[in-house]
Amino acid sequence: MSKKNKKTQAEKKVEPVIYSKVEPLNAERHGALKLKAVADQAHVRSMNSVMLTTTEFPSAAQNYPIVFAKVEDSFVPFVVTGYKQGENLYVGEDGRWREDSYIPAFVRRYPFTFMEDTEKGSLTLCIDAASSLLSEEEGELLYKDGKPSELIDNALAFTKAFHLEAEKTKIFCKQLVEADLLVEQNANFTLPGNETAVISGFSIVDEKKFSELDDEAFLALRKTGALDAIYCHLISMRSWGEILSGKANQLDAEKKAS
Question: How far apart are CA 85 and CA 46, in angstroms?
């Protein structure tokens, strides 16, 4: 069988197309809306990478390679979930995330997000008004008697925590850049059927540079807690095989369905 080579880049959008109609939440506009129970993650089936915060590194490293991609002028950590654009190998045909794998907070946050006013230094809780998870017929009300329900209170707390962790993650990534630890990398795959694929456009921590840091630079990373995240990232490099496992599972499912 002839070999085919596919080349893709790590996802570089922090707010992907899953958010198509972001609106600030208010009782007047959204008072009649209900949020359905999240039974699956079909809305992220096309994401081949998902943004991650450093507090998630220990859990995510067991199931995914954690890489860094340039978003505008800064680096952002992502878990790689597929070897090509438009395919998430951790989401099955039934729309459910692989049971044995950690689900990133970015995915669990949906359909909520924050709108930030940098001039005023304020955050406004928003929702994707076009989300299929919203309905006027079924689910839990967003507002009760014109006041935010417990659902919104919980969403606000979760989204706020996510935002705070994302800000800490920005500082961590800035430290990696200042220490000159990031190096661009490619990942090469031999897929079932002898097909090959290359994932490019991402960076990882250079282990050699990291091991050669002088005492002052190393201690600076230790004092800020950056070392734990770095070690988790390096350990996650053992998880590239999970993507191949996901591809094999996908092919098995297709064979059973045919």
Answer: 7
Give the CB-side neighbour count of residue 216, counting CA atoms within 13 A.
1
26-68 pLDDT per residue, tens:
999 999 999 998 778 888 988 999 999 999 999 999 999 999 9
Residue 49 CA to residue 81 CA, distance in Å, equals: 5
In the three-class reduction of DSSP (H, G, I as helix; E, B as strand; rest coil), residue 74 is classed as strand
Residue pLDDT, tens place only, 239-249: 988 887 655 45
Alpha-carbon distances, residue 56 vs 59, 98, 102, 168, 194 (angstroms): 6, 17, 9, 12, 34
Query: Rounded to an integer, what distance in angstroms lies between the CA atom of residue 36 and that of residue 53?
Result: 26
Confirm if 170 and 116 have CB atoms less than 8 A apart.
Answer: no
Residue 21 contacts residue 129 (beta carbons within 8 Å): yes
**Assigned token pair, 89:** 């190998």
DSSP H or E run through 160:
helix 150-178
For the chain, the straight-line distance linking the first and the last C-alpha, in angstroms and rounded, comes to 21
Q: Read off the pLDDT of residues 57-73 as tens digits, 9 standing for 90 and up.
A: 999 999 999 999 999 88
Q: What is the pTM of this model?
A: 0.84
CA neighbours closer than 13 Å in the CB half-sphere of residue 193: 10
